[in-house]
Design a protein that fits this description.
Elements lengths: L1 E6 L13 H21 L5 E4 L11 H13 L3 E4 L22 E3 L6 E5 L4 E5 L22 E7 L14 H7 L3 E5 L8 E3 L2 E4 L16 E8 L2 E8 L5 E7 L6 H9 L7 E7 L1 E2 L5 H8 L5 E6 L2 E2 L12 H15 L3 H18 L6
Parallel strand pairs: 1-2, 2-3, 3-4, 6-7, 7-8, 8-10, 13-14, 14-16, 15-17
Antiparallel strand pairs: 1-11, 5-6, 9-10, 11-12
Helix pairs in contact: 1-2, 6-7
């Protein structure tokens, strides 16, 4: 059995452009501290696989290079890195400034190569992006000696055949003959998948960087045997991005409604709150921000409320709109449950929007 830790898409030194300069710098420090968590988790594994986009770009702060060097020194397991489209391998990229101990191997070519670990009875394969885009790296590859465990770390896209980011098809995975394919590029954990006899997974990013990367993030720890994979997702500590829609229809104290919907434990995280529903007047976003912002590390408020109106005020008029509303109002009053009434209201809104040449009413 071989025990691995699989992580990807750290994007160290991300700009965090939506935050203030001070908070962006703080978030980059938090990214570096992820390496300390990974080092602690690696104490009981044999191999650490880093499947690309360790850096966000071809440049890195000195503090990040130092943190990565300390990480390499702290980890006793074998470390394998497959550079991706953001941190593609090039002579002057951050990898060239780091002194690598013997337990660290960086794949430097788009040609797949192997490192044999005879003491573990396995072979680790990998390849690198050498530009921001890549042809399919796995296509045509097949393990010849399947007696031991064959593991690969690779950056690539399994979703889009036309992807410029090293497209990997299910047929490519199945034909590879690998026991485990450790992928990077997708920032959401995929769970454990299988194509033919090959297990594969994306761990997702270890720390969210925007509202397209919400929720708990982490890494994968897996125990591999021939024909078997015991998989677990391990959450990491760190700030989360969260999105929440809150209906503020008729609310006199919107801050109270929002606070009640949120519950506790929001102060360390970054939230986007989307206000929905109908109101007689628009919410005072500036005042709401002032009353709520101390509850969050960072807050974004989005107003998607609609002006309130009496949908039936034109019902019975001798017009096309009046006749349309009259028919729906009868149906509404005869509806037997709330679901039916909501459906009729939706039909009335859509109909009025079409008749009044509006996007919504």
């Amino acid at each position: 059995m071989v025990r691995i830790l699989h992580a990807a898409d750290f994007h160290l030194d991300s700009p965090f452009a939506s935050l203030s300069w001070e908070k962006a710098a703080e978030r980059r420090k938090e990214q570096r501290r992820l390496l300390e968590q990974i080092a602690q988790l690696s104490e009981n594994v044999d191999i650490v696989l880093l499947s690309g986009d360790l850096f966000d770009s071809g440049r890195a702060y000195g503090e990040t290079v130092e943190a990565l060097g300390s990480f390499f020194d702290a980890v006793k397991a074998k470390i394998f890195i497959a550079p991706g489209n953001h941190d593609y391998y090039a002579p002057k990229n951050p990898y060239s400034h780091i002194s690598l101990p013997e337990n660290v191997h960086i794949f430097k070519s788009p040609e797949i190569s192997a490192v044999e670990l005879s003491g573990l009875g396995c072979t680790v394969w990998g390849a690198a992006f050498t530009d921001q885009r890549s042809e399919p790296l796995l296509r045509g590859f097949s393990v010849k000696d399947k007696a031991g465990l064959n593991i690969m770390t690779l950056h690539g896209d399994t979703s889009f055949p036309d992807s410029p980011y090293g497209y990997i098809s299910q047929a490519d995975i199945e034909g590879s003959g690998l026991d485990y394919l450790a992928l990077g590029h997708v920032h959401t954990c995929s769970g454990l998948n299988k194509a033919g006899l090959t297990y594969w997974a994306y761990p997702g990013c270890p720390l969210g960087r925007g509202f397209d990367e919400t929720g708990v993030k982490g890494v994968i720890i897996a125990e591999l045997d021939k024909g078997a994979c015991n998989y677990s997702f391990v959450p990491l500590e760190g700030r989360r991005y969260e999105c929440l829609s809150i209906d503020v229809t008729g609310a006199e104290d919107m801050a109270a409604i929002i606070t009640a919907a949120l519950g506790e434990g929001t102060e360390n995280n970054i939230y986007r709150l989307v206000l929905t529903g109908t109101r007689s007047e628009r919410p005072n976003i500036k005042a709401l921000m002032a009353s709520l912002e101390n509850r969050f590390y960072s807050l974004e408020l989005v107003d998607e409320t609609r002006p309130g109106r009496d949908l039936w005020d034109s019902a019975g008029e001798e017009t096309l709109k009046g006749n349309f509303l009259k028919i729906l109002k009868v149906k509404y009053e005869a509806a037997e449950n709330e679901a039916e009434r909501e459906e009729i209201i939706l039909a009335a809104r859509y109909g009025l929007a079409a008749l009044e040449y509006k996007e919504d009413v």
